[in-house]
Amino acid sequence: MKKRIALLLCMISCLALLAGCSLTKVNKNLNESDLTKNTETFVSQWFGYDFASTVKQYESQMTEDEVTSYKEYTKMQKKHGAFKKIEDTEYSAASDSASVKETVSTEKGSKLVFTVTYDEKGEISDWKVEEYKTIGETMGKAGLNTVMSMAIVFAVLIFISLIISCFKFIGKAQKKEEKPVETVVAAAPVVEENLTDDLELVAVITAAIAAASENESTDGLVVRSIVRRY
């Protein structure tokens, strides 16, 4: 049983290898040698092409991105000088596309990296030019970007903490502004009346007090003053 399973797996592997080989051989337009030669020709023509004149003549018919790219290429031509030689070539291909990357040295001692992409027909579908950067330069730029990002994050956090710490001072300032409101209750005016001016009222009050105290005699009860409450 185990031998049969092993044999079946071997057959599947062989079929997969055959299928892979057939896929890579299907498109003859993506031949490495031909595309490498085409890329070398493209690179040499790039250094001799007048991008500035093209922009002046056809700017109205070009997109904004194309105009920006052509102006950038003009600056790169002036900065790096003429073509000197090809330093390195890298080829990569898929079932329907391929790309060739060439590192080129210039007369001014600098390097440029050309990446040309080809479609399934072997025609150029896209290309770009970049200044060559060593691994140290790339790592240095990446480290600088990391440090800047961390610095921005810490700056924002410090700013937020300062805002939060100011809240307690704002609360104290508000408490100082809010003074307690004192409620003043005016005392009811006391009016004293002269007993001699209202003898009848005195007699009625005296009788009422005697009745309330269950003492019919008013002897010993003396009303000295009457205070009216409002």
Q: What would CATH call the class of the domain at 24-135?
A: Alpha Beta
Spatial ordering of strands, largest sheet: 1-2-3-4
Return the average pLDDT rounded to an integer. 79
> Which residue ranges are poorly predicted, with pLDDT under 50 across at least 5 consecutive positions?
none
- End-to-end distance, in Å? 118 Å
Q: Round the Cα radius of gyration to an integer and report it.
A: 52 Å
Structural class assignment:
alpha+beta
What general form does the structure show?
A: elongated
Quote the CATH topology of the domain at 24-135. Answer: Nuclear Transport Factor 2, Chain: A
Order of helices and strands: HHHHEEEEHEHE
The total of helices stands at 6
Largest sheet: 4 strands, antiparallel
Protein name: OadG family protein
Main location: membrane
Pfam families: OAD_gamma (PF04277)
Keywords: Cell membrane, Membrane, Signal, Transmembrane, Transmembrane helix
Overview of the molecule:
- With 230 residues, this protein is an alpha+beta fold.
- Among the domains are: 112 residues, Nuclear Transport Factor 2, Chain: A; 38 residues, no CATH class.
- It is 54% helix and 18% strand.
- It contains six helices and six strands.
- Strands 1-2-3-4 form a four-stranded antiparallel sheet, with helices on one face.
- Helix 3 runs antiparallel to helix 4.
- The longest helix has 43 residues.
- The chain starts with a helix and ends with a strand.
- The mean pLDDT is 79.
- Keywords: Cell membrane, Membrane, Signal, Transmembrane, Transmembrane helix.
- This is OadG family protein.
- It comes from Jutongia hominis.
